[in-house]
Write a structure and sequence with these properties.
Helix content: 25-40%
Distance between the termini: 57 Å
Bound molecules: 6-O-phosphono-beta-D-fructofuranose
Order of helices and strands: EHEHEHHEHEHEHEHEHEHEEHEEH
Number of domains: 2
Radius of gyration: 22 Å
CATH class of the largest domain: Alpha Beta
Strand content: 15-25%
């Protein structure tokens, strides 16, 4: 008989509730108690600690497809790792979290988070020294190393695809190009996958340099006077500041190309969870429960082909590109990006999609 808890942290995404539901289902079959920590680390810092006991009535199966997290991910304004590090109060913050986990007398914690949460968990690992820490990767950005997918990514691609499908109809009616700015932070995987799905004529990502004149020439050469130009939010243009979609729109307007910008924003984190994310959620939940059963700790579940395996957090941290947070340089997270041999880059160039200089 074990007592485990689930905590969701970082930006939300669709698929979190599937994971929560499947963890509860699998834990109950094993005869374990499951608790949900409400509001991520805010819940652990609250007095009393903000937790709820969970069963399949608190997370009903018919709601497991809904976006967001039933457990909530925390208030942007509360103390968190980033703020504690910036304020030089990290050991105080770590002690609060460690004491709270000790008070809950947990055998294991399932942390459903992104690369920031996992990097900080690994760097501050003494917090979890008395329990088994098993991480499940979720993010629409898909910027976590060593896994072939993250929970929420496929739904975000689907949301963007549906959004652009609608835009194409008005684009054709008015002979206009739509420059659609996706989320993704400094990782272009979301824009690349969605761009291919919608049949975009250009896909601009932070990992690949591009030339505005080449882009303009390419759009002029398309045998159509409307379409989608997908641009990732992390794209920068030398000598310009502001939203990349707006900068590109001004350049196209100057070249006589009718266009509008579109910002799907948080719709990318919403939407009914697509089947691929639900299957991934079920696989990762099972993998996490098996890891707890085997007394593994400091591990992350990862998709490898069609299998789900655990990888040590030490390997996760070492495998990515460790970069300082632009706002808080003391916070160092590990990141994954589009690889130069990503098959979708070849698909794009084979199909005549503009993806940057040299392609
Ligand atoms: O990391 C997920 C993400 O949605 C990014 O794609 C985006 O840049 C960011 O979070 C937005 O964060 P916030 O919820 O703080 O606005």
């Amino acid at each position: 008989m074990k007592k485990i808890a689930i905590m969701t942290t970082g930006g939300d995404c669709s698929g979190l509730n599937t994971v929560i539901n499947r963890i509860v289902a699998g834990a109950k079959i094993r005869g374990w108690d499951v608790w949900g920590i409400i509001d991520g680390t805010d819940g652990l810092c609250s007095k009393p600690i903000n937790v709820m006991e969970m069963n399949l009535k608190t997370v009903p199966i018919e709601n497991a497809r809904l976006a967001g997290s039933f457990l909530c991910n925390g208030h942007a304004c509360m103390m968190n790792f980033e703020r504690a590090i910036a304020m030089g109060r990290v050991s105080e913050f770590n002690k609060i979290l460690r004491d709270a986990l000790a008070k809950l007398k947990l055998d294991a914690l399932v942390l459903v988070g992104g690369n920031g949460s996992f990097s900080l968990a690994w760097l501050n690992r003494e917090i979890y020294r008395d329990l088994s820490l098993v991480c499940i990767p979720k993010t629409i950005d898909f910027d976590i190393p060593l896994t072939d997918r993250t929970i929420g990514f496929e739904t975000a691609v689907d949301q963007l695809t549906k959004y652009c499908d609608q835009l194409l109809l008005t684009a054709r009616s008015h002979h206009r190009w739509f420059i659609v700015q996706t989320m993704g932070r400094d990782c272009g995987r979301l824009a690349l996958n969605a761009g291919i799905a919608v049949g975009a004529d250009a896909i601009l990502v932070p990992e690949i340099k591009f030339d505005v004149d080449e882009l303009v020439q390419h759009i002029k050469s398309v045998d159509r006077d409307y379409g989608i130009i997908m641009v990732s939010e992390g794209v920068t243009l030398r000598g310009h500041s502001g939203r990349p979609a707006e900068i590109i729109a001004r350049k196209l307007t100057a070249a006589g190309i009718a266009n509008r910008t579109a910002f799907p924003d948080y719709i990318q984190r919403a939407g009914d969870t697509v089947a691929a994310d639900r299957i991934l959620g079920a696989k990762m939940a099972t993998c996490a429960l098996n890891a707890i059963e085997n007394n593994e700790t400091y591990v992350m579940t990862a998709l490898r082909g069609s299998d789900c395996v655990t990888v040590p957090l030490s390997e996760f941290y070492a495998a990515g590109d460790v970069r300082a947070d632009p706002n808080i340089p003391l916070v160092k997270t590990t990141n994954a990006y589009i690889e130069p041999d990503d098959p979708l880059l070849h698909v794009a160039s084979d199909l005549g999609v503009y993806i940057g200089v040299g392609e």
